[in-house]
Amino acid sequence: MSRIKLAPLDHYQSIYETTVEVTDLNYGNHLGNDALVGIIHRARVHFLHWLGASENNLGDGKTGILLADLIVNYKGESFLFDKLGVESSIGGVSSKGFRMFHRITATQGRLIALAETGIVAFNYQKRKVAPIPESFFSKISDL
After folding, report:
1. Alpha helices, DSSP H only, in the chain?
2. How much is the pTM?
3. Which fold has domain 14-141?
4. Contact by Cβ (8 Å): 129, 96
5. pLDDT in tens for each of the 143 residues of the chain?
6. What is the rounded CA–CA span in Å between residue 130 and residue 53?
7. For the chain, which residues make up each domain, given as ranges?
């Protein structure tokens, strides 16, 4: 079976911290994949907020984002009450999208997962892919 293998970045631009809750556990009594996707989503929301943007507004009042793809490489288990750190970075920027890279670690730096998402700029009023606003380009170029 072929796999897409992600490698951690040397540097991440932000960190989001959370705790594994009982509702995040699966039948194996560890962090479920659905919960991990939700945690990555929350990290993305916090990162965009830190940049002065949101999933509905990248800075021009009309351009939001769509998630185009998601890759997750699971590296370890995480359990109830583990403190998680989700380090995130933006890269692979083009005129209509970018990639986000995430490294998820638990207590004492245990690697839980590496993730990468493809993000597309989207105009929700016109219901079509749109260019990334210049104001967002300037925010991420300073990183």
Report:
1. 33-50, 134-141
2. 0.95
3. Thiol Ester Dehydrase; Chain A (3.10.129)
4. yes
5. 889 999 999 999 999 999 999 999 999 999 999 999 999 999 999 999 999 999 999 999 999 999 999 999 999 999 999 999 999 999 999 999 999 999 999 988 999 999 999 999 999 999 999 999 999 999 998 77
6. 16
7. 14-141
